[in-house]
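Re: the multi-chain job from yesterday

Posting the exact lines I submitted so nobody has to dig through the queue logs.
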Amino acid sequence: MDKILQGNYAVARGAWEAGVKVACAYPGTPSSEILLAISSLYKDDIQAEWSPNEKVALEVGSGASIAGARALVCMKHVGLNVASDPFMTLSYTGVKGGLVIFVADDPYAHSSQNEQDSRHWARFGKVPMIEPSDSQECKDFTKLAFDLSEQFDTPALIRSETRISHSFSPVILEDRKESTVPIGLDLKEAPKYTMVPIYVRERRLIVEERMRKLEAYADEFKYNVMEINDPRVGVITSGVSYQYTKEVFPEYSYLKLGMVWPLPQKMIGEFFKKVKKVIIVEELDPFLETEIRAMGHKIFHGKDVLPRVYEFSPEIIEKSLKGKRYKPPAERIKAEELPKRPPNLCSACSHRPLFYALKKLGVFVFGDIGCYTLAAAPPLNAIHATVCMGAGVGEAFGATKVLEGKGLGKVCSVIGDSTFLHGGITPLMDIVYNKGNATTIILDNRTTGMTGLQEHPGTGFTITGTPTNMIDLESLVRALGVKNVRKVDPYHINETMDVIKEEIERDEPSVIITTNGPCILHRREKRKFENSYYEVVSENCRGCTMCLDIGCPAISWRDVKEDEALTRDGHKRKGIVYINRSQCPGCGVCQQICKFEAIVPGKA
Amino acid sequence: MEEKVTNVLLSGVGGQGTILASDILCSVFHEVGYDVKKSEVHGMAQRGGDVTTHFRFGKKVYSPLIKYGDVDFLISFELLEGLRYLNWVKKGGKVLLNAQEVFPPAVNLGKMKYPGEVAGTFKKFFKGNAFIIDGLAIAITCGDARAVNIVSLGAFSNFFKIEDEVWERNLLLHLPEKVHQLNLHAFREGKKAI
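And the result, structure tokens for all chains:
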């Protein structure tokens, strides 16, 4: 029976069919749906968890593996940076139950802070990496990855990317098969799992020996496939790049690599004998190209014509390979001149008034990863640096160090509740330990918002919705030694501004935690607003545009004609604002900003 | 079955049900025997941005993305989002446009004008192959403005010889039971709209 599945759901299905018992992840686009699928569809067979971060996820997966279970650990590309510490050494210890790390790249950075190419981790960590090219392969390759992991006693990587993880295609479903590896720990295996120098040196040799075996295996791997059509041109490619190229140049010959590390050297050599010219098509870095050139092959085209940046598409490949022969379709209208529709904070989002307050205070804001990066865009323009999860907290400290006393009142960091627990605790510890004075604002919206409302250790619920311990952020930061901990209701702008001002001017570490501001899309927790919506008293509106500075999707501008050119009290105006009732949940932020009493609660 | 792959681009604004509509298309065309692929972008696009999905069906589909300029059918739930993908439609391609305006931020802020004469522009380039419906009005008569996507699917179903029973059964598979009658009604009214 076949079913249309998203790539990520197909990975989840593959894990279930492969007999996986433990699955861990921290949410990250485009990888988040795998754990969602596992926790909803396969929870009777697989223990799923949202881990506090990717490093912990991999460590939990490793422990499960050492105890004999098959374990899947999922993350986005930058998640593997966080998990890289255990990753690099797990390559030495190897596994008992299969251990598979799924990593999803995001070329074009649709929803990411960079567009790194995860294939380098496979070479760096000396572990095999396979790369599916559609949903069926997502399922099949996941199962294969577990076999590979156990057969070669290594963690195995699956590399996906946005267009594989978030595309849908038919998948043939099969039954679950339990793993034959017995569950249990063996004290005698300590030399395999204890990476102290004397054992490291033993395992180091095993890693190299394993790579040699994997190289030989790559030449036999059934998903490294040669399709010989036109012998004049052959393409070496993998993943979604195969699909795009095959679409545009069906007549070419192909060597489609299911395993992108290690490479099948013999097979590549044969391919060069079978076709006259070889083109290498790969998104992002010239990973295959560098390796294949190093084997001594002469390639016809690669990154000399294909871009190294952003994601590919069929037309990019066609244009790059055809060069001057490419004929673009007719451009009937200038589409790029149309008004854009960029993402925005939702109407009544609790981040909006907080960032408006920071903007008014003129503070340099070190940000973090989450919906609130949207506050970097106009009209709020209230984030001035964003690197990775937790980075802003340490960066704010670093900046205050060099600004010395002059930094007081001018710097702070903002971080979400989920991201604070992911990576913000240790830098905050550093501020206290090393006698800093930076202010950290925790935007506690009670969920992991940006990736689709996942639970975390501060929400009080596990991935399956089971009640669990809920971290109290205030107690946590006090335990780190922060003495000045304030709570603010972000929807009260003036009070929020006063508290922020006081704390950023204080020559001691401080933390401000927002309260009663759950994500507006939250299903369990809802902020109750006093009024159900607001409206504009047109006669009072002076068209000053102050309320437009918050970038609320519900507020719009319209020009006025002569008959409306004056306010009730005789002030000239060019236009007025109006509120779209269907988009206004009644947060009242705009009312607090209006100086002319033009915004009032709607009549129920 | 013909070899050719058919490309359907769906565009709209977050909340208009673009993804649901493409899910339904996937089910319908898969059931009648085609290979199907669908691609969408998640993440930041959910926060009020524009939403597009690429849906492709045929004997064997490779790329999950449609090649620029190769769209056979453009289904847009919003005028500006239709216009944004006008150049994607191939010569002889068909356009199904819901005549609804949702202002983007630059228009809300008074910095840019919402494009005028969108329907006329499509008529100019696609003549009889441009189908414009007032999907919102139809959806509201059926009981819920959110059914615009289903109204459009009803209209779109006219282009294919697929039994209504297949459309309607797959439609219901993707919707909660309490809105079944409303959406069946919306689908049928949409079918009559062109």
